[in-house]
Amino acid sequence: MVPVSATYTGTETGTAWVDLRVEFVGEDGVTYTDSCGVLPDNLNDVGELYEGGKAKGNVCVTVPEGAKGLWTLAVGWGDPVFFTAGK
């Protein structure tokens, strides 16, 4: 599970859980995308945002136990940014 905070900077509207793509790429080169089920403060519970609107919530991806790798975040079908999540 990783917390996500975002601010909508477009001129129309956006929905964080639709417009943002969060995945996990393991050291084995495999991308994991399966969700975990019920989450506290789920990003999916944040509604539509207008210019300057803020979204904050958790995203969870099922990965093998002890998997090492990087999280990715992409907007729409754009190129992902890789990051680590601290404890």
Beta percentage is 35-45%
Helix coverage percent: under 10%
Low-confidence stretches: none
Order of helices and strands: EEHEEEEEE
Extended strand count: 8
The helix tally amounts to 1
Q: Determine the mean pLDDT.
A: 90
Measured between the Cα atoms of the first and last residue, the distance is: 10 Å
Strand order of the largest sheet: 4-3-7-8
Write the layout of secondary structure elements.
Elements: E1 2-7, E2 13-14, H1 16-19, E3 20-26, E4 31-32, E5 49-50, E6 54-59, E7 69-75, E8 81-83
Antiparallel strand pairs: 1-6, 2-5, 3-4, 3-7, 7-8
Explain this structure to me?
Helix content is 5%, strand content 40%. It is built from one helix and eight strands. The strands form three sheets. The protein has a four-stranded antiparallel sheet. A two-stranded antiparallel ribbon has the order 1-6. A two-stranded antiparallel ribbon has the order 2-5. The N and C termini lie close together (10 Å).
Summary, kept brief:
5% of the residues lie in helices and 40% in strands.
Descriptors:
four-stranded antiparallel beta sheet, 40% strand, single chain, mainly beta, globular, 87 residues, two-stranded antiparallel sheet
